[in-house]
């Protein structure tokens, strides 16, 4: 038997229609038969083998790409993503000893408030009911009232506040007076909302590049990502329009600190997005505001643009990734659906966990810690983006913990940086259709490292090596 025949026998790709072909590829990925980075057959070759029209195979490949299972690499063809969304395996980044690791996407542990359990916890009053504890509800309402104080933000001149319109004010009032429900973090809230509002095969509009775990969540539910290209102000309204016209049942938007791009939804962009949604009242909108405590100014959200909406306020980036709790605010129907699902699964977020977060929110000393963290992250972003700009390199990071650097070839860029002592995340972990790039987590960047890192990026991109390829090893700590 020839080598090519053995290949076909091993992978058993089959199907007469695009959905069947896509399903057979995903089955091979999930079973471990197709490995990350492995090439799929060219469209015409697979079409000939299966006896179908090449357009059918091309449609299957497009579906797989949109679902995050494969990526197109130009002359390298169509290959399984390094972190395939439907695979049972999770790709790990083995960072060699001595290499500066900027891949995590997590906050700097040194900039997190020091939390402690309440001195006395009376567990006797906690029940299985999926309600929010009164102490947490009180503190979150106070916190969100502060975040959504549009007029106060205008007076202080915060980013975009002066352009806040009546829709922003109405959305703020809607969030602060609606029902609250604790969930196990922002991703858990997104996943539960999608589980109750969508069915396998439905389309979901999502940013591109997007949070990799959100893409994986869509794929695990059999949902198709409808990518919306992101710039510094948020998702492209034209892409949202196309996604809605294609039948998207839900829209996920990161309000600020977008991962990996660093976008913050501007008031102008929020107005345009809401206008696109006006003709689709049944669509679910999800505003993920995980960066709320680390980004000054008012969040510009989509809440209320349709009948079904939700806003997520999370503890992870501000108080610590292991504090697995967020508050979901939404319309009555959406909140009821998630609460019903919780009753049949985890029942509810632990009352002890709720009390820990409520205690943390009530401590005024923690606000000073969060303010210092927010300013440090902002300084680190500005420093790196500025150093890259001086070397003629484009980068993005309006808010959040990361900087996104577009590159011609992300594999070459990531490999070149690793050789120079810096580990960054390849864009393939996050993107659907957008061009290649790398994500750099700047949360723990130390003083003086921005210039050394920018030198390494320039060298990896062939912009000229300044001779400081491993300069971060000599930067004062």
Write the layout of secondary structure elements.
Blueprint: H1 3-11, H2 18-30, H3 43-50, H4 54-66, E1 70-72, E2 78-80, E3 100-101, H5 134-147, H6 150-156, H7 166-177, E4 179-183, H8 186-197, E5 203-208, H9 212-220, E6 224-231, E7 234-235, H10 237-245, E8 248-254, H11 267-277, E9 284-288, E10 308-314, H12 316-319, E11 326-330, H13 332-343, H14 351-362, H15 364-390, E12 402-406, H16 410-419, E13 422-423, E14 425-426, E15 437-441, H17 449-460
Parallel strand pairs: 3-13, 5-6, 5-8, 8-9, 9-10
Antiparallel strand pairs: 1-2, 4-11, 6-7, 10-11, 12-15, 14-15
Helix pairs in contact: 2-4, 3-4, 5-14, 8-9, 8-13, 10-11, 15-17, 16-17
Q: What does this 3D model show about the protein?
A:
By secondary structure, this protein is of the alpha/beta class. Helix content is 41%, strand content 14%. It has 17 helices and 15 strands. Strands 4-11-10-9-8-5-6-7 form an eight-stranded mixed β-sheet, sandwiched between helices. Helix 2 crosses helix 4, helix 8 crosses helix 13 and helix 10 packs parallel to helix 11. The protein starts with a helix and ends in a 17-residue tail after the last helix.
Provide a short characterization of the protein structure.
41% of the residues lie in helices and 14% in strands. The protein has 477 residues and is α/β, with parallel strands linked by helices.
């Amino acid at each position: 038997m020839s080598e090519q025949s053995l290949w076909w026998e091993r992978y058993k790709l089959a199907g007469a229609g695009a959905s069947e072909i896509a399903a057979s590829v995903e089955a091979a990925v999930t079973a471990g038969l197709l490995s990350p980075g492995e090439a799929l057959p060219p469209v015409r070759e697979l079409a000939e083998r299966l006896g179908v029209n090449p357009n059918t195979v091309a449609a299957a490949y497009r579906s797989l790409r949109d679902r995050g299972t494969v990526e197109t690499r130009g002359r390298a063809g169509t290959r399984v993503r390094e972190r395939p969304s439907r695979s049972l395996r999770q790709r790990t980044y083995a960072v060699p000893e001595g290499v500066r690791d900027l891949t995590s996407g997590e906050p700097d542990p040194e900039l997190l408030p020091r939390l402690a359990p309440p001195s006395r916890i009376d567990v006797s009053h906690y029940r299985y009911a999926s309600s929010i504890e009164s102490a947490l509800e009180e503190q979150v309402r106070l916190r969100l009232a502060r975040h959504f104080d549009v007029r106060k933000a205008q007076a202080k001149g915060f980013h975009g506040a002066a352009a806040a319109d009546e829709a922003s004010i109405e959305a703020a009032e809607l969030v602060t007076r609606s029902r609250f429900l604790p969930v196990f973090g922002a991703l858990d809230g997104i996943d539960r909302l999608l589980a109750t509002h969508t069915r396998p095969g439905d389309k979901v509009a999502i940013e591109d590049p997007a949070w990799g775990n959100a893409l994986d969540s869509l794929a695990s539910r059999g949902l198709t990502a409808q990518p919306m290209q992101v710039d510094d102000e948020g998702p492209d309204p034209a892409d949202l329009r196309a996604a809605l016209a294609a039948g998207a049942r839900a829209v996920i938007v990161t309000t600020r600190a977008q991962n990996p791009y660093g976008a913050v939804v501007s008031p102008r962009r929020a107005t345009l997005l809401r206008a696109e949604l006006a003709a689709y009242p049944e669509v679910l909108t999800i505003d993920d505001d995980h960066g709320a405590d680390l980004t000054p100014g008012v969040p510009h959200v989509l809440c209320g643009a349709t009948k079904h909406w939700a806003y997520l306020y999370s503890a992870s980036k501000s108080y610590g990734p292991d504090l697995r709790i967020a508050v979901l605010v939404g319309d009555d129907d959406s909140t009821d659906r998630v609460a019903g699902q919780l009753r049949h699964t985890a029942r509810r977020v632990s009352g002890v966990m709720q009390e820990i977060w409520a205690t943390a929110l009530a401590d005024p000393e923690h606000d000073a810690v969060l303010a210092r963290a927010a300013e440090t992250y902002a300084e680190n972003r500005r420093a790196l983006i500025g150093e890259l700009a001086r070397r003629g390199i484009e980068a993005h990071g309006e808010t959040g913990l990361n900087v996104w650097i577009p590159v011609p070839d992300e594999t070459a860029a990531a490999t070149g940086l690793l050789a120079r002592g810096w580990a960054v995340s390849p864009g393939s972990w996050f993107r659907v259709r957008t061009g290649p790039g790398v994500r750099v987590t700047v949360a723990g960047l130390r003083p003086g490292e921005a210039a050394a890192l920018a030198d390494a990026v320039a060298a990896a991109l062939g912009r000229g090596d300044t001779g400081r390829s491993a300069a971060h090893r000599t930067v004062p700590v």
